[in-house]
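tool=predict chain=A
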Amino acid sequence: MVCGLASSVFAGPAEWVNPFIGTAHGGNTFPGALVPWGMVSVSPHNDLKAPSGYAYGNPDLYGFGHLHLSGTGCPDLGGVVLMPTTGKPVPDIEKWKSAYDSEKAVPGYYSVHLKTYDILAEMTATTHAGMSRYSFPSEKGEANILIDPGHRLTADPVTLKSPSFESSVKIVSNTEVEGTVESGDFCSPFAGNRETAYFVVQFSKPAVHAGTWKEGALKDDPNERGRDIGAFFSFSTAGQEPLIAKVGVSYVSIENARLNLQTEMPGWDFEAVRDSARQSWDDALSRMEIKGGTGVQRTLFYTALYHALIHPSVFSDVNGQYQGMGHKGVMTTAGYTRYHVFSLWDTYRNLHPFLGLFYPDRDLDMTKSLVEMSKESGWLPKWELAGNETSVMVGCPSVPVILDTYRQGLKDFDTESAYDAMVKSLNPKDNKIYGGLKSLLQYGYIPKDDDSGDWLWGSVSTSLEYSYDFWCLAQMAKDLKKKDDYEKYIHLSGVYRNFYDPTTGFLRAKNRDGSFMTPFDPLVTCCDQSWPDNGGPGYVEGSAWQYLFFAPQDMDGLVMLLGGDDAFVKRLQECFDGAHYDATNEPDIAWPYLFDYVPSEAWRTQRQVRAVMEKYYKDSPDGIPGNDDCGVMSAWYLFSALGFYPVCPGSNTYQIGSPLFKEVDVHLNQMVYPGGLLTLKTINNSDKNAYIQSIQVEGVDYKKKFLTHDMLVYGKTIAFKMGSEPRR
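tool=predict ok
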């Protein structure tokens, strides 16, 4: 395992990354090799039910997949699995698995020793291709590479009961095999997503024997199709002779998979590919240059940054082709890179604001991807995976992403089409993706006993998300000079108030007749739906406590609704003191920053942010609180360590926390933000000196309770003077 280094000298930041952080305790990250935002990731599978294929500490490896999700709560993808073995090929995943040790992971490289076969397996990657190098022992007989397209990551990994998912292999020559992998059913067999990945595998030397298998039977046939199928290549190798396998992947065609491979990985120089991958990470991570802090803090920061630069991932091939949204056929990008894996209910809250600030060229292309998806399918995506709508989670989370991108000054996308898609997706007419809108417009809230026929999860939570979404739509209308539309939508941003029950002081589920649903317990986290941990009645993955403060678009109004400054602070502090705050899930991760809305109590935010960073983030496999959710928990740490956080994406304001490092120099993208360098400094900073005494911007005292986007991107120097006592 790679841990933080003790040096205080700023070197290549990839040295500080520990890819094993988040691989245990439900973080659901993976330790394998990839490049920033890469389509391909070559990573070990030691748990075929794990969302990423890997759970730290499991005893056996089943192979190395090339397509993965990082930090999600459900499994999918996992395709194009290679497994090196010795002896006779055995076409049974439970019999070819291997014990392992000596794992090593750094950005762009992973290696492990397969104890059962005494094989050293190493892997690295480019954007669309993976390269593996296997060093076989000298006295174990045949050296095999098993190509297993039949096992996707799923809750039913071995039997794969769904007959609709099939894969294929075709042996092209004694050095090449091609095929397809199907996967889908993300989070539910009713999700409806189904993706096909195409692959080409090439070997550095000819095989002495190659064949296929189906349902456990070896064959000499060069072609096979079905569920439990695969191919094997057997080689004659001298002692410790390395064998290299290259894998090109595409979601369009086998021809494109081969083109991706030929373009990005034409040779067989493993070290050159590994060094290039490492350099790509050093380049991306060097956007943030840290001075001060402990080795552990640096490791946590750069590992969080590493995880934040995985998803959304590149989806288009080197020729610009991609699979259109909803299987609309092969399309070609026009001047942008297409992305996929949009976990938007999670990522709108902080990951996209982070990318828009610090990697604006990438975030702009991601927003273009969302807009083009709406043109292809008719709707903005909710949770998109490989060109499919999975319909997971609630609200219309593309809307805040588009507004935030636009307001950050990243306007080089089809804004009129984007606006039309925002309007359509928040309109109940013929809307099969965003349920509850008809009732929301009829009642001013979505009733718990809704009879509209829409599928609903968490009537309160969904209504609160829509309330914020309508605020975002109103702001977009305002910026585009659509005054009538602004007036039409802005009042809908206040529907959250209709759930407030002054008797209990909570936002409660209501019935169609206006009565509050009973019984009511603000601590209940089950069971709005049938699956575990789905949320209390009316809520999504949370309780009434986790949703009490969700009105990011109108925090001043919420403060008044809850009784004014003193009452608001009392309730918010009660949330933390009573252990009702949940740092492992999205609904309330912004809550530590809400004390800022009562300026005299901002010190509570500073105390709470430091406490969360200290308690929940660690340099160990269980070092992320809950699922990383495609980088969201990592982005929370990044913002918090820098000293600010976007409570309300789209507002271009950031609440102030408690910066962690002596200095952070942020090298802005000068093609977008000409300021060039943002410098965040602290004076007298330490674990004890966590409270801000004063702030200066360019040497001038700063009194506001928030930072602005313009301050951050125009090359300012912001200095925080810290102390051990709160400044009230």
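The chain has a mean pLDDT of 95. The longest helix spans residues 459-479.
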